Amino acid sequence: MTTLITPTNESSSGPWGVKRLQAKFRDFGIVFGLLAIVLGLSVSTTTFLTPGNLINLVDQATVVGLLAVGATLCIISGVFDLSATATLAVSAITGIWISQTFGFAAGFIGAIVAGVLLGTITGLIIVSTKINSFIGTLAISIIYRGLAIVLTAGAIVSPPAEIAESFRFFAERGPFGLTWASILFGVTVVVLGLMLSQTTYGRRIYAVGGNAEAARLSGIRTGAVRVGVFAISGACSALAGLVLISRAGSAQPGMATGLELTAIAAVVIGGTSIMGGQGAVWRAFVGVMILTVIANGFNLLQWDTTYQQVVTGALILIAIAADSLFFKKRNS
Amino acid sequence: MSHTELIAQHGSPSAPQIEVRGVSKVYGPTTVLDDVNLTISPGEIHAILGENGAGKSTLLKVIGGAITATSGSLLLDGEPVTLGSPRDAIRHGITLISQELAVIPQRSVMENVMLGRWSHRAGFAHLAADRVRFDDLLDRTGFTLDPDATVGELPLGIQQQVEILKALARGARVLCMDEPTAALNDVEKELLLRVVREIADRGTTIIIVSHFLEEVLGLADRVTVLRDGKLIETNEASAYTPASIVSLMVGREVDPIDQPPAEVSPLAQTVVDVERLETRHVHDISFALREGEIVGLAGLVGSGRSDVLLGLLGAEPRRAGTIRIRGAEVKENSVSSAIASGMALVPESRKDQALLLGRSVTENVALGTLAQRSFGGWVRRRVERAEVSRVSADVDLRGVGPDTLTVDLSGGNQQKALFARWLLHPPALLMVDEPTRGVDVAAKARIHSLIRDLAARGTAVLVVSSELDEVIRLSHRVLVMRHGRIVDEFDRSARPSDILTSAFTK
Ligand SMILES: Nc1ncnc2c1ncn2[C@@H]1O[C@H](COP(=O)(O)OP(=O)(O)OP(=O)(O)O)[C@@H](O)[C@H]1O
Ligand SMILES: [Mg+2]
């Protein structure tokens, strides 16, 4: 059967749309996974499906969620950013430090600017030296953590008492009883999701991660695309840092250590390809929700939480195996 | 002891008779192979021919165990077998050599040939034993290969021999070769065909897919023609002429008349002016192209033809020299500025240098000119779809929808999609490197006429092709390269032999 390419492809998928259905299942299988867990918990507990628990659930997902959104962009463009939470710490500390002299607004904006700057620096270092991003950002994260210790002399820093309340903003309730942190997370997912799927910059991100040489020979500035991605990841880290300040009322050099790996795990569980060039922002959202709901489930069912780690690890393995199986099948 | 080892050690048990019985392969709504019945006798060279997307590669993959048929069966010497993987097939003496070679470029010829079958003593490599086996293979094939050469540094034609030896070292009695000559120049091609004939004469069965009808008719014992997944005919090769094969492939009479390129108007302005361009691989390159002019670069592999294109595009750092496009100097040494100033390249290797295999056809075609169809950074998807479908029709992209993943396209259709990329927004200077690699006869004529049409509308075109014939037919002028320099210039009335002589000896 030879069909000429047509603007509407409905006809080419046959009367039953089998191919499209299969493709949909492949694309959205992970969503069914999340729904299955949600359904299971709704049936087996009385406490899961309560507004309070659900609102709590989303709130718990925000910090890793914001990091995972940044990580998604990085991974799709073919790089890892292990410096994400070190950037988070430095920008949170910088924000508080600025607020001590110039007030809340300046501190808030300062934190985000710091995140973007640090992300840009990370990106410039990785792109210009062409070192492997995994090792490179690992080294950079150690430097940033060191910087955080220098800035604070190793101590916990807090905003001055008179503006401490302003910093708690993200922990407060907004529409539908959701915390403002949850809303921030939602807005970030939507904005960056649209950016990735609808803009030319998004297309370039996929191209650079899918085949850097092809992207380059098509006239895409691959280095600039990746620096941009690191900068966005830095901004996401800073936002996550502000959410953490709103909860703890303070920041410290060691904050959020290790969460960058949880974020990458969430990205992978959501179905974004670890090999680059493939994935979506909504997948990070689904991945993070799966991790959070599982944690919540263990809690509600009063299961031994040590097994939670086993489950999480197994999920990551399954996700990666599915990903590489997909590629193997495609390339055979 | 496994079957393979038996074969490998005892030299040459005869190749099995292969019977493909009622094989069909279905992907979603598309039937790619439709009830194919075929018997291939031991030691014959069997050619499988057909248009792009006819199902040739798919049939080869079924025989080579890379994919399993949806229905039907495969019999070896009358025994039904299930080949679940290439490993299974190798165990039965069948090896699939795909066009993208599976060599390890950094390692030596011998290591590649013996890959995974190294001789050892108590776990330690036993090089001397490997050497004996290697020499034995050379004896059996009549190849002359330096076992210590690094594979990546060898010309493609020789790498192909390495791959053949590797297959034979694994006890292959049947070689399935998918377009083995597509990436070779004329000299290498001839050598490979000789080699194939040689090993077939010594009892190895060869199943070969190729779009070069003349050469394949000269080589093969029997020929099978596929069309839209159906087996149209199997017969002695001597029963056909290239023209009769083409009409079987296409299902109607075609006349393959190739128009000459349109005259360049005397008023045509200079599009590109290159002066003393110097990169790592090419030296003192100077030439100019006018609007509508098609110029071919001829030369041996490694003579620097592709490097000239990469140098112009800024993909290879420019060490000296100036490039002007329509009078304006291209100052910055980067691909993006070259493209912004009006150049574009269809590169040599679609898989490595051009396509995002995991993304849709639409995204791939749109990739080169994203900014042309965007509004404030937003992709205008409707416009994109409409324009991509227009150029896809222009290149006759078949069997796909706009959302089909590029990996799922047949090789020839991938090449067409690549070509479509720059039709969306024709550049001032289009550089094409092996523009028709892996495309069928009809599609080749189509791409040639697209190149001529583009030129007629004012684009200057620079063509590199290993098929000298193609270069001469397409171009107004041919520049001959040797050792990174332009050494000669011919016009289109030149005889191929003169150009070849110049490429070899000047
Ligand atoms: N995994 C797949 N999913 C869907 N369709 C596929 C897949 N693999 C191949 N096809 C389709 O099957 C058809 C036959 O493909 P095949 O690669 O066998 O063609 P071919 O005869 O080798 O063509 P060419 O000369 O261009 O290499 C094509 O239309 C292709 O798009
Ligand atoms: Mg093919």
Head-to-tail CA distance between termini of chain A: 22 Å
Mean pLDDT of chain B: 88
Quickly give the structural class of chain A. mainly alpha
- Measured as a percent range, the helix fraction of chain B is 25-40%
The proportion of residues forming helix of chain A, as a percent range, comes to: over 70%
Enter the CATH topology name of the largest domain in chain B.
Answer: Rossmann fold
Please report which band the strand proportion of chain B falls in: under 5%, 5-15%, 15-25%, 25-35%, 35-45% or over 45%: 25-35%
The CATH architecture of the largest domain in chain B is: 3-Layer(aba) Sandwich
CATH-defined superfamily of the largest domain in chain B: P-loop containing nucleotide triphosphate hydrolases
Biggest β-sheet description of chain A: none
Low-confidence stretches of chain B: 1-11
**Beta content of chain A:** under 5%
SS-based class of chain B: alpha/beta
Looking at how many chains there are and whether they match, the oligomeric state comes to heterodimer
Bound molecules: adenosine-5'-triphosphate, magnesium ion
Description:
- The complex is a heterodimer of chains A (332) and B (506).
- Chain A contains 13 helices and no strands.
- Chain A is mostly helical.
- Chain A has a domain of 188 residues.
- The longest helix of chain A has 27 residues.
- Chain B has 506 residues and is an alpha/beta fold.
- Chain B has two domains: 233 residues, P-loop containing nucleotide triphosphate hydrolases (Rossmann fold, 3-Layer(aba) Sandwich), CATH 3.40.50; 236 residues, P-loop containing nucleotide triphosphate hydrolases (Rossmann fold).
- Chain B is 34% helix and 25% strand.
- Chains A and B meet through helix 1, helix 8, helix 9 and helix 13 of A and helix 11, helix 13, strand 20 and helix 14 of B.
- The structure holds adenosine-5'-triphosphate and magnesium ion (MG).
- Chain B: GO terms for molecular function: ATP binding; ATP hydrolysis activity.
- Chain B: This is Monosaccharide ABC transporter ATP-binding protein (CUT2 family).
- Chain B: Keywords: ATP-binding, Cell membrane, Membrane, Nucleotide-binding, Repeat, Sugar transport, Translocase, Transport.
- Chain A: Its main location: membrane.
- Chain A: It is found in: Cell membrane.
